[in-house]
Specification:
Elements (H helix, E strand, L loop, with lengths): L1 E6 L4 H8 L5 E5 L2 H14 L3 E8 L6 E4 L1 E3 L10 E3 L10 E4 L6 H15 L5 E8 L4 H13 L3
Helix pairs in contact: 1-4, 2-3
């Protein structure tokens, strides 16, 4: 069982999430309250895999699978770092990255990893940043191929 989420309602991260096939649960998040509610749903649902998508604000020719997250949010915290699951292989379009930032992408990833590390959530979690210049169709094609290897 694979669950996926994106941020906000009409950006590329949520459009990608809702365009993918074989996802058991799709969500769009839009702030701390929605992230906390989603984490509670994850604990109840216990999906095998969780994939998060966010917008990468800089220019890049690659999708960026983040390798770690921290408790740093809006320049507060930052002393706890969790590694993320490398459930997808790097290739010509997807590269590993350590630049998740300190916004909602990092906060959601940190909260999910906090529950995985505590043992309350028994899932593998990956987070992919999508550069703004990418087209939904090309992201979906790449990620659908990656997700199909998990089924």
């Amino acid at each position: 069982m694979i669950w996926a989420f994106g941020f906000q309602k009409y950006n590329i991260s949520t459009k990608t999430t809702y365009s993918l096939e074989n996802i058991s649960n799709k969500a769009h998040l839009w702030g701390i309250d929605s992230i906390e509610k989603y984490v509670k749903r994850l604990i109840l649902g216990q999906p095998e895999y969780i994939v998060g998508f966010g917008i990468y604000s800089r220019d890049s020719k690659f999708l960026r699978m983040e390798t770690e997250c921290s408790n740093k949010f809006r320049n507060n915290g930052g002393d706890i770092v969790y590694p993320l699951s490398m459930i997808f292989e790097e290739d010509g379009i997807l590269k590993y990255s350590k630049s998740i930032g300190n916004g909602y992408c990092n906060y959601a990833s940190y909260r999910i990893m906090q529950e995985i590390v505590s043992g309350r959530l028994k899932s593998k979690f990956a987070f992919v940043h999508i550069p703004k210049k990418f087209k939904v169709k090309e992201v979906v094609a790449c990620m659908q191929n990656k997700l199909n290897t998990l089924i």
